[in-house]
Amino acid sequence: MNSEDLGFLPATQLADLIRTKQLSPVEYTVALLERIGTLEPKVNAFAYLAADQAMDAARVAEAKLMSGDRIGRLHGVPVTIKDLAITKDMPTQQGSFIHQGDRPTEDTPVVPRLKDEGAIILGKTTTSEFGWTGVSRSPLTGITHNPWKSGYNAGASSAGAGAASAAGFGPLHQGSDGAGSVRMPAHFCGVFGLKPSFGRVPYYPVGTADLTSHIGPLTRTVADSALFLEVMAGPHPLDYTTLEAGPAAYHARLHEGIKGKRIAYSPDLGHARVDPDIAALAKAAAERFAALGAIVEEVPTPWAAAGPDLIRFFWSAHLTRLKPRLKQWQSRMDPGLVACIEASANVSIDEYQAARERKMAYVAAIHRWFQDWDFLLTPAVSVAAFPADRLMPDHWPQHAWDWVGWAEFSYPFNMAWNPAASVPCGVTAGGLPVGLQIVGKRFDDLGVLQASAAFEAIQPWAGRRPALG
Length: 469
What we know:
The protein has one domain: Amidase signature (AS) enzymes (Alpha-Beta Complex), CATH 3.90.1300.10. It is built from 15 helices and 15 strands. The chain has helices at 3-7, 11-19, 25-43, 51-67, 110-116, 159-167, 183-189, 222-232, 276-288, 307-318, 326-329, 335-343, 349-369, 412-415, 445-458, and strands spanning 46-49, 78-82, 120-125, 137-138, 142-143, 145-146, 149-153, 172-177, 192-195, 214-219, 262-265, 295-298, 375-379, 420-427, 433-440. Strand 2, helix 5 and strand 3 (120-125) form a beta-alpha-beta unit.
């Protein structure tokens, strides 16, 4: 196989080739780093590429393989970590000059779990400044380019992970999702992104945004996502929100299908603006679930009307934690982030508590509605990729910081903690990827993976590769 084929090799296949000694971890890592070295200037997916550390880990992996030592599920398989996740042996800069060069003293829990299974950490992928926006740029690292169109948005704070996945920079990329930041890069970049149920994967330090940020995988295949989630999931003492239950057999049970499942479809949640090409592709994809034996109906979502006011209030209010930084750093921060912080400068505790009461009623309404449905299908995002130097597409209303208008479908399930995925469902006339969102009942991560795998089987996408040269 050439370096391109190796870069796009699924983790499930790669792990088997290494385990059976048909592929050397060292030779594979050399080839992958050569590919990244050639193409990374066109993509800019890495905030920090740990090439020397990756080669050291590959040599250790090869020695263990040859000596007959224990071989983990991801032995010799490369993984990237998002630059919002803390890592002790490489910088964690969060896309901001405020933390340029910072090196934490410990790892977030998923990192040792991945290493224990033999994974090789390639480096840290780019993020918007503190993960605040759905656009793939930061003051520190600049624009992360969509592999399908240079200069275009690769999507949200896990953009580096999504772009790396689409570009064939290895199979497994860790992301996090506070309002869609796993699902939006998946949509924009034409890959698979899963936001698990809240608490499924430990996230430390625990965030201050009212428990809405989830760690999840970005991959090119559903099987890779299932394997990745099995390794990352499970309780951890440093994250008091993690679920007590360990991961299910996600990978082994993907084939079980969705026959007889009740699936609701909403084109707009009753309030969202959606570009016509996105709407058409999402609707066509939703209709295909009937061929999988599911019962599909277009239905109203009356709970959704409260969402826009809630997300705009909380998105700005939670970012006021950065207000003390403005005096020193404002001139080197993303202007949109500064505007977002300042929008809630005068919010009182009384107002915040009243908003939380409305949020809890909103969340209860979502779960009450899901008593009648196994899954909800929607567009993943309202627009296809647009120039990454813009906060909004040119044909949408402009705003100093409110990018959420084109991303109304994802945040409800951060608030409600449901598992949700974006699966590629087609391309626009301009060749830009589009995702379909699949949302499940809380805790039904397996069901969302099974629904995604069933759709992948009738409309496969992993073979599509961007022309990067």
